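Notebook p. 47: complex prediction with flavin-adenine dinucleotide.
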Amino acid sequence: MNVNHTLKVLANEPQGAGRYLLVAEAPGLAHAARPGQFVHVRCTAGTVPLLRRPFSFYRLRPAAGAVEIYYQVVGSGTELLSRVPPGTTLSALGPLGRGFPLAPRARHIVLVGRGLGSAPLVALGEAALAQGTAVTAILSARTPSALVGSRPLAALGAAVTTVTDAAGTSDPAQVDELLSAALERPGTAQAFVCGSRRLARLVERSAAARGIPAFVSLEERMGCGLGGCLVCACRVRTPAGETYKRVCKDGPVFPLEEVVLE
Ligand SMILES: Cc1cc2nc3c(=O)[nH]c(=O)nc-3n(C[C@H](O)[C@H](O)[C@H](O)COP(=O)(O)OP(=O)(O)OC[C@H]3O[C@@H](n4cnc5c(N)ncnc54)[C@H](O)[C@@H]3O)c2cc1C
Ligand code: FES
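Predicted complex, C-alpha cells below:
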C-alpha cells in the first residue's frame, strides 16, 4: 500500500565519487517494502524542491526498522539530500511500484547490473540468499570505484564478478560469455538486470535462448510517482500491439520480453 512515512536519518555518509549511503529509521516502510520497489523522498525537511525524488531500496533491514538508499548526486534534489544531517526527518511515500518477482523456490538466480543500477540488486540478492537461493552477480561500471554492490553482495555469499570499461572487460562479448556461463548453471530459475539498456538486451537474448524468465528494472523521470501524471511512460509489447505503461505504478520492474528497449 502507498503510504506516507517519516524517514529519520540515522546516517548519510559519502562513499566517494559523489555517492552517499543514507540509512534511515522507518519501521513501517522497512517491513512493507520488497526489493525492486522504490521510495519517493522529499530531499529536504522544507518544501523546495516540491517534487519528490525516486530511490530504490539498497538494503532493507526490517529487524532494525531501517532502510538504506545508495544514491548519486546528479542535480538539485540529490545535492540537497547529500547535505541532510543525521537526526533530520524527511517525508517519503512508499513502498511504491512493483518489485522483483523472486521465485520462492529458485535454486539459483543471476543478477546483472551497471553502475547505480546495481543498487536494488543488493536488496534482491540479500532476499534470495536468505531464502536459500544461490546468487551469481555480474556487476559492470566505467571504473572500479563506480562499481556498486560488489562488496556487500560478496559478503552476503553471492558469487560476484566485476567488469569495468577501464579494464576493458565490460564489452558485450565478454559480458555475454560470463552471462552464458551463469545462466547455464543447473537450477537457474530467473535473471534480473538493471542500469543499462545494452546489458538488458544481452540478458533478454541470452535468457530467452535458454527459456529462463528475465526481468528488468527501468528508471524514468518521474513526477507524481503514483500513476497519475504519465511522466514516466515506457513502451511495452502486448498481444494487441505496442502500448505504454507507467514505470512508477506498473513497474519499475517488468518482464524483459515485454519492454521495448529503445
Ligand atoms: C525507480 C527509480 C529508482 C531509482 N533509484 C535510484 C537509486 O537507488 N540511487 C540513485 O542515485 N538514483 C536513483 N534513481 C534516480 C534518481 O531518482 C535521480 O537521480 C534523481 O531523481 C535526480 O534528482 P535531482 O534533483 O538530483 O536531479 P535533477 O536532474 O535536478 O532532477 C530534475 C527532475 O528530474 C528527475 N530525474 C532526474 N534524473 C532522474 C532519473 N534518472 N530517474 C528519475 N527521475 C529523474 C528528478 O526526480 C526531478 O524531478 C532512481 C530513479 C527511479 C525512477
Ligand atoms: S510519475 Fe506520475 S504517472 Fe508515473
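Notes: The chain has a mean pLDDT of 95. The longest strand covers residues 3-16.
Next step: compare against the earlier run before touching the bench.
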